[in-house]
Amino acid sequence: MKHTPSLDAHWMPFTANRQFKQNPYLISRAEGAYLYDQHGRKLFDSLSGLWCCGLGHTRTEITQAVAEQMGRLDYSPGFQVGHELSFELANRLIEKTPIGLNKVFFTCSGSEAADTALKMARAYWRMVGQPTKTRFIGRGKGYHGVNFGGLSVGGIGSNRKLYGNLLDADHLNHTWLAENAFSRGLPTYGAHLADELEEIVALNDASNIAAVIVEPFAGSGGVIVPPQGYLKRLREICTKHNILLIFDEVITGFYRTGQCFGSQTFEVMPDMINVAKGLTNAAIPQGAVIAHEKIYNAFMEANLPLHAIEFPHGYTYSAHPVACAAGIAAMQLYDSEQIEAKVNDLIPYFENALHQLKGLPHLEDLRNCGLAGAIQLAARNGDGTIRPREVFEYCWQQGLYVRYGGNNISLAPPFIAEKSEIDQMFNILADAIRQLK
Ligand SMILES: Cc1ncc(COP(=O)(O)O)c(C=O)c1O
Question: Which keywords fit this entry according to its UniProt record (predicted)?
Answer without folding.
Answer: Aminotransferase, Pyridoxal phosphate, Pyruvate, Transferase
